[in-house]
Amino acid sequence: MMLTGSQLSKYRLIVMLQGIELEGKGLKMTRGRSCLAMAKHEFGWKGNRETIKGLLKAAIDELPNHNAEAN
Q1: Is residue 57 part of a domain?
Q2: Is the residue at 16 inside a domain?
Q3: What is the distance of C-alpha 20 from the center of its chain?
Q4: What is the three-class DSSP state of 66?
Q5: How many independent structural domains does the chain possess?
Q6: Which domain, by its residues, includes 34?
Q7: How many whole angstroms separate alpha carbon 22 and alpha carbon 60?
């Protein structure tokens, strides 16, 4: 499966959400800033981990779904 166009932005947000969940369990996703800090900075959000996860899930749900397999 190959991701193109607007699929990449949705995939990036999904990976960021997974990173926030893993960071909550004690794992580091990056050597630099945390996924939580990146999400807060990118969207201008404030709040704790659970608040940001909820906002990020809502942002992901707002993006359109594209079928990779168009027959």
Answers
A1: yes
A2: yes
A3: 8
A4: coil
A5: 1
A6: 6-62
A7: 18
Q: Amino acid letter at 60?
A: I
Percent of the chain whose pLDDT exceeds 70: 89
Q: What are the residue ranges in the chain where pLDDT is below 70?
A: 1, 6, 66-71
Model pTM above 0.90: no
SS (H, E, C) 1-50: CCCCCHHHHHHHHHHHHHHHHHHHCCCCCCCCCCHHHHHHHHHCCCCCHH
State which amino acid sits at residue 31: R
Tell me the residue type at 65. N
Structure-block tokens of residue 33? 């800033």
Is 27 part of a structural domain of the chain? Answer: yes
Query: What is the pLDDT, as a whole number, of residue 68?
Result: 52
